[in-house]
Amino acid sequence: ITLSSIQLNIVEYADHSLNISHAIAKPVKPRPPAVAVRKKPSAPAPPPSSTPPPSPPSLNIDLKDLAITDVNIRWIKTGSEDTSIARISKIHGAFRQEGNDIRASIDVAGEVQKLYRFGMPLPSGDVTFASAIRFDKGKKTVNLEKGELHYNAFALTMNGSYGLTGAQPLDISLDMSAEN
Fold this sequence. Notes:
Elements: E1 2-12, H1 19-24, E2 65-77, E3 84-98, E4 101-117, E5 120-122, E6 125-136, E7 141-151, E8 154-163, E9 171-178
Parallel strand pairs: 1-2
Antiparallel strand pairs: 2-3, 3-4, 4-5, 4-6, 6-7, 7-8, 8-9
């Protein structure tokens, strides 16, 4: 799958919620309005069937490679002039199934044009991220096995895991260094 020329606008509201949270929230099924219907006498109902109804068709996608290029991101904080802007020149992901695991390697390259953290501007510069990720379908855990983030003179290596069920905490180890 290849995607290109994407504009992503993320809005952070005063309560720190995000506009994209609504887009990825579980959908709500609207209920049809109640309508009064007069019943007509009908024939007796047929006896219940012993065979279950057919299941709806399913969609299976075997994603092995994902390439995304030219993504512009704007992070807008309401009530503030602090809008962060970044351009991602490439995202590449390769995926494979190994038994009960799905493994992925992710590479990202881009440029931070404006970045604000806690109301303070940070320097612009190039950013890269590379990682190996494993998803255990049985345990429902995501494991970041090797992660490297480079931003200007800073380098951050990370590994950790996150459980997708119950109240399992994020467990992550970080090691940060600078060229100077």
